[in-house]
Amino acid sequence: MAAGQAKASDVAAYDKLGLIWRMAARLPPLESFRVLDACVRHANFTRAAAELGVTPAAVSLRMRDLEADLGVPLFVRHGPRVAATSQAVAIAAAAAQGLAAIAGAVAAARPGSAPIRLTAPPTFAAQWLAPRLAAWHARPGAAPIRLDAATDLRPAEAFDVAIRAGLGPWPGFEGRALLPMEAAPMLSPELAQGRRLTKASDLLTLPLLPHPDWPRWLGEAGAASGAPRFYGSELATSDLDASVALAGAAVALLPPNLFGRYVAEGRLLQPFGPMLRGPEAYHLLTRADERRASVLSFRDWLATQAAT
User: Fold this and answer.
1) Residue ranges in the chain whose pLDDT is less than 50
2) Rounded to whole angstroms, how far apart are CA atoms 96 and 105?
3) Which among 20, 52, 213, 227 is least surrounded, fewest beta carbons within 10 Å?
């Protein structure tokens, strides 16, 4: 049998699907089910339209046509909000499963796995993400990752998965909090050597790397009345701050959930608290209409990594 040629059993099984395809020919347009899925998820025609890139009027007309075609009500309308009927939920769920199956078959037919385009802030990418990617690539059938570490926010069409820092929400995306943004003072053992560091105010005798959260940390630590002495350079990323701290030049306010390994290795000290946590966080974003199995698998894997 030639490479890529279908087996006779496969052809026979496919032939049995003829009845299903003849039934499908009498179904409403496939696009109607995609719109239905968005409307059921958002419970709002305007938000569904924003996700789909069409007008709310077009979504409303499409759903009215689908209701007329099926002969059953799909939504109970309450002003801008809509409540899906049980029939709408069942049809949308079945349509989503069917579309996912088609997407999976198409992905399997393509030569090799398409890379997942991932964008993340440089510090997060270097300190948390990159060390974990080897475990992802060790998984059977894992899609390749194209990582873009950027300080600026990439446009939506430029990525499949994004890590963004802030409070959210991000319209048009499904987001979940991955890690809280943290901050605690860290310094090298060399800088701490011979110094008495028993209370937060003792840090005021050392040069501090500029950071917008120092007033908050000093206030929560009970040292707000002191006058801090700041290191001469204000640096662009926490990675650069950590480099200065590792060199013994100043105390850096760093996130323990990204730089804790330096403390565990004894290269930096985290002498005392409190540790600032939130309210902002690193969020994991995918498009609200994302259905590709490889992207969803990578998203769920990242969430599991953060949870453990």
Assistant:
1) 1-3, 11, 19-21, 111
2) 14
3) 227
- Give CA–CA dist 84/38, Å, rounded: 11
In-domain check, residue 2: no
CA distance 232 to 210: 8
C-alpha 228 chain-centroid distance: 37
- If asked whether residues 251 and 198 sit together in one domain, one would say yes
Give the total number of structural domains in the chain: 2
Domain of 105?
Answer: 8-109
Q: Give residue 231's pLDDT.
A: 83
Same domain, yes or no: 239 and 127: yes
Let me know whether 190 and 207 are in one domain. yes
Q: Return the closest-CA partner of residue 211 out of 173, 179, 174, 252.
A: 252
Q: Is residue 237 part of a domain?
A: yes
Q: How far apart are CA 289 and CA 41, in angstroms?
A: 10
Q: What pLDDT shows up at residue 262?
A: 92
Tokens linked to 183? 């901050």
Distance from C-alpha of 147 to C-alpha of 53, rounded to nearest angstrom? 27
* 44 inside domain: yes
**Does residue 148 share a domain with residue 52?**
no
- What contacts 24+ positions apart, CB below 8 Å, involve 57-63? 59/35, 62/31, 62/32, 62/35, 63/35, 63/36, 63/39
* 3-class secondary structure, 164: strand
Which pLDDT tens digit goes with each residue over 133-162?
A: 999 999 888 899 999 887 777 777 788 999
- Residue 17: what residue type? L
Among the listed residues 134, 151, 306, the one whose alpha carbon sits nearest the alpha carbon of residue 240: 151
